[in-house]
Amino acid sequence: MSLLDKMSTAVLMENLREELTCFICLDYFTSPVTTECGHSFCLVCLLKNWEEHNTPLSCPECWRTLEVPHFQPNERLGRLAGIGKQLRSQVIQNEDEQSSYMRMLAASKVYSEDEQSLNSFSTQSHGINKGHLSNEAEENHKEKLQEILNVLHKRKKEVQSILTHEKERERLCKEETKNCKQVVVSEYMKMYQFLKEEEQLQLQLLDQEERENLKKLRNNEIHLTQQIRSLSKVIYQIESICQNSSKESLEGVREALERSKSLLQHCPETTTTELSLCRITGMREMLRKFSTDITLDPNTANAYLVLSSDLKSVKHGGMRQQLPDNPERFDQSATVLGVQIFTCGRHYWEVEVGNKTEWEVGICKDSVSRKGNLPKPPGDLYSLIGLKIGDDYSLWVSSPLKGQHVREPVKKVGVFLDYECGHIAFYNVVDESLIYSFPPAIFQGALRPIFSPCLPNEGTNTDPLTICALKSHI
User: Fold this and answer.
1) Of 42, 45, 21, 17, the residue nearest 32 (C-alpha)
2) What CA–CA distance (Å, rounded) separates 47 from 300?
3) From CA 145, how far away is CA 136, in angstroms rounded?
């Protein structure tokens, strides 16, 4: 390699080193992070810098004030720094080895030339002092050996320096890991505290609503009890009049009829009680960690159902399609299964319901009956049914069938399965609230997602059910 090439390589290596060097420790990046202003530092260096300075926190390089101590890990920069460091070490090592080799080669060449000169001179000049020439060659050889020793000592010193540096890095690695663990523990402690406070608020709200609902129920009980007494009194009076046909008794008929008429105008009513949505803070972020890509299985779809080309959406087409009546296809129920089969693990997916007036989503056994439209045995089907009649909207779960009225229609449903724990739950994605959680069960055999857009209902329920894409979010 020419001198010019070496100089160019040295300049490039130095430029690369500067780009991959932490502004604080002036060494290659270790676990680098990038601040809001775009500057990068070693994680430990940045945390120590912030510990040593009072608030407000600022960037150590541009001194820009940061609103919060926020930074993002920069793994790619860390990998580049590691590659740059190895490359620099390798280049230096190659240059030193080449230099040492050249020195040793030169010394060997000089020694060989001295030997040849000495032998040649001995054979040609017998009258010259051989001892004097031998001493001169020996001194020359010692000088060359000393040069080699100097190079070896220098290399040993470099190796020792790297060894010391590696031991320091080992110490820093342990310290950095310890600091990161402390940060993680601290952040989760804050999250635990926040969630605990949210839990207490939700429980207090439910307690308050329970007291209000109980008060309504007791007041209505008192009202109904009074109504029963009044009705009983009128009934007794009318029965007495009917048994006594005297003229005096008949005079009280008009009064009894008037009282009964006023009582009959007041129809008994049940009390409407309400509970707040069971909102779970951070629910969706937690559940989406178990996101599972669900697609529809066309081999199971009822002949009236139309599936989208990406197998993510299903609607009732209104006309029967010419499809083979294979054993796995539903022949009576407007139903289709998901392709995915679950025998273990945790799984979560979301279904866009939109403005449909009737729909059903959930989980069923893979062995669920596909023929006929008979009720499914308990344990074969865990589904959520949405039903809108007029302005009344209700949700039902099966099996066994249970219903509850809701204030607002559900637009998007989240379905969660924990196979090992025997847990299935449905969530209102928009409100981030729990709709229903089935009691724990013991699952045996394979489970599959199940979907039904239900019948069109004279054109009022033609919208599709759509499985939402979750991987591209978050």
Assistant:
1) 42
2) 57
3) 15
Q: Of 356, 341, 377, which Cα lies nearest the Cα of 449? A: 341
How many Å apart are CA 292 and CA 350, to the nearest integer? Answer: 9
Give the start-end residues of each E strand in 54-112: 71-73
Tokens 């074969």 appear where?
A: 380
User: 422 in the Ramachandran plot: left (φ > 0), alpha (ψ -120 to 50) or beta?
Assistant: left
Q: Which amino acid is at 196?
A: K
Task: Name 237's Cβ contacts closer than 8 Å, sequence gap at least 6.
Answer: 252, 256, 259
Question: Is the distance from CB of 195 to CB of 281 less than 8 angstroms?
Answer: yes
Contact indicator for 403, 377 with CB cutoff of 8 Å: no
CA distance 281 to 283: 5
Whether 328 contacts 299, CB under 8 Å: yes
Cα–Cα–Cα angle for 416, 422, 424, nearest 5°?
A: 25
Closest to 186 measured CA to CA, from 69, 35, 33, 41: 69
- The set of residues, in sequence order, having a beta carbon less than 8 Å from that of 227 and lying 6+ positions away, is 263, 266, 268
Q: Write phi, then psi, for 403 (nearest 5 degrees).
A: -125, 155
The amino acid sitting at 156 is: K
Higher pLDDT, 468 or 372: 468
Give DSSP secondary structure letters for 245-274. Answer: -SHHHHTTHHHHHHHHHHHHHS---PPP--
Phi-psi region of 432 (alpha: psi -120 to 50; beta: other; left: phi over 0): left
Chain mean pLDDT for the chain: 81
Decide: residue 321, CB within 10 A, 0-12 exposed, 13-18 middle, 19+ buried: exposed
Q: Against a cut of 0.70, is the pTM above it?
A: no
Instruction: Provide the 8-state DSSP code for 65.
Output: B
Under the banding of pLDDT at 50, 70 and 90, the label for residue 81 is confident
Q: Using alpha carbons, select from 300, 326, 315, 291 the residue that is nearest to residue 417.
A: 291
3-state secondary structure of 404: strand
pLDDT tens-place string over residues 148-195:
888 888 888 888 888 888 888 888 888 888 877 887 787 778 777 877
DSSP 8-state assignment for residue 379: T
Please name the residue that has the structure tokens 């059903």.
360
Pairing of strands 71-73, 392-398: unpaired
What single letter denotes the amino acid at residue 367? S
